[in-house]
Design goal:
Length: 422
């Protein structure tokens, strides 16, 4: 059983299907595209009671809880209580994403490199602090905010406005009861997803997200408009430093706090001139990072997930292909603001890439758009240049009205690669 219904879940399900011992996969709720690969059950990813009853009724052997909300709400605890094995952290560990205040305090306590910060529980104190704080500065709502709870303020006025939006207007609801104000860092960003059983941590191939809606990293922040893997900024040297200063210390810190983390721990990193620093932790696979990382995975995903649950990750070898992947997200025009849905999606004959469906439903035998991010097209090739070329070539074969996508996914990574070779 896979809980969730986006492109990430589609990528997880397609990979799990490579294991021939799995007789049936259910997706809760899944989506119109996932229907081709799993039995979709109309239960929302946050409806933990219904998820647990369904799992009991169907005698589910193993559950993968993919999205942040159910993890932070304790879906894994509830399933475990009924004897159902899961891939994903329990509630007391998912807090590493669920509360930015928790994550920042953890890093401070265990000397894990991150931006300097202060925590505020009232707007008054935050506004007072901002009178003399350096700008630009970064203001973050404590709790989950659909990936939108981070505001980069370039001026003092913008910073005051951000505090008011989060703490007084409560645009992110209770998530804004506390805020973190932190130092503005600069440098290339790298996403590193890892498998961990609380003892061993195995980083997956690195990736690069493209969060802004427009080309050249312009426009509004989105859930992610495309990804490439591996990320050229993540050199072997930096990987080594991250392992020693960030990955292992984080796993150990969580154990010391009595919050052992099992599942996929996502490190959002920035490579600053003072070395790699943690921008954020996620308690789950990234979306759309998963859509480039899993297609490069050679080892059986279900075996890895079982080993993470059984705490035997040290007994298996996890391998990735020595190739590159590029995922281009096709969205509905207007996303991340207002957009229309209900347009038929068609794919030309000869389409030769992976299609991961995110926002679509099936309607009398047709697949129709039903969300902002509609789908992702992932191509794998021997190098990044060809993966990008191929992804864009295949995107042209996927059609729906009002489609839009970034034209420059992978461009920054390709430039970095060229520089490296000079
Ligand atoms: P998050 O939701 O925590 O991933 O933050 C969203 C984006 O805001 C990140 O991907 C960064 O680009 C940016 N960001 C977050 N924290 C900082 C920081 N301390 N300095 C500069 N940029 C940041
Ligand atoms: N792509 C960023 C995330 O999944 O949080």
């Amino acid at each position: 059983m896979v809980v969730g219904g986006g492109g990430r879940e589609h990528a997880i399900i397609k990979k799990l299907k490579e294991n021939k011992n799995i007789s049936e996969i259910y997706a809760l709720p899944g989506n119109g595209g996932i229907e081709a690969d799993a039995k979709c059950i109309n239960i929302g990813a946050k409806d933990i009671e219904k998820i647990v009853s369904f799992a009991e009724e169907e005698k589910i052997d193993f559950a993968v809880v993919a999205p942040d909300d159910p993890l932070v709400l304790g879906a894994v605890d509830a399933l475990n209580e009924k004897g159902i094995k899961c891939f994903g952290p329990r509630k007391n560990a998912a807090i590493i994403e669920g509360s930015k205040v928790f994550a920042k305090n953890l890093m401070k306590k265990y000397n894990i490199p991150t931006a300097a910060y202060e925590v505020f529980e009232t707007a008054e104190k935050a506004l007072d602090y901002l009178k003399t704080a350096p700008v630009p500065t970064v203001i973050k709502a404590d709790g989950l905010a659909l990936g939108k709870g981070v505001i980069i303020a370039n001026t003092r006025e913008e910073a005051y406005a951000a505090v008011k939006t989060i703490m007084e207007d409560k645009v992110f609801g209770e998530s804004g009861n506390s805020i973190v104000i932190e130092e503005f860092l600069s440098g290339p960003e790298v996403s590193v997803l890892s498998f961990t059983d609380g003892k061993t941590v195995v980083p997956m191939v690195s990736s690069m997200d493209h969060k802004r809606a427009g080309d050249g990293d312009k426009g509004l922040n989105t859930g992610g408009m495309g990804t490439v893997a591996p990320n050229p900024y993540y050199t072997a040297e930096i990987a080594d430093e991250c392992m020693k200063k960030i990955f292992i210390p984080t796993i150990n810190a969580m154990n010391s706090e009595g919050r052992t983390f099992k599942g996929c721990l996502y490190f959002g990193l920035m490579i600053t001139k003072d070395g790699p620093k943690v921008i954020e932790y996620n308690c789950r696979f990234g979306d759309p990072e998963t859509q480039v990382v899993l297609p490069l995975l050679k080892t059986d995903l279900f075996e890895i997930m079982q080993a993470a649950e059984n705490e035997t990750l040290n007994k298996i070898e996890i391998e990735f292909k020595n190739e590159s992947a590029c995922c281009v997200v096709m969205a509905s025009q207007g996303y991340p603001l207002k957009y229309e849905t209900g347009f038929e999606i068609t794919v030309d004959d000869g389409f030769d890439a992976e299609l991961f469906v995110a926002g679509a439903k099936s309607d009398s035998g047709k697949l129709k758009t039903a969300g902002g991010r509609v789908l992702g097209v992932t191509a794998v090739a021997e190098n990044l240049e060809n993966a990008v070329k191929k992804a864009y070539n295949e995107v042209k074969k996927v059609r729906f009205e009002n489609a839009f996508y970034r034209k420059d996914i992978g461009e920054k990574a390709l430039k970095a690669l060229k520089k490296e070779m000079e």
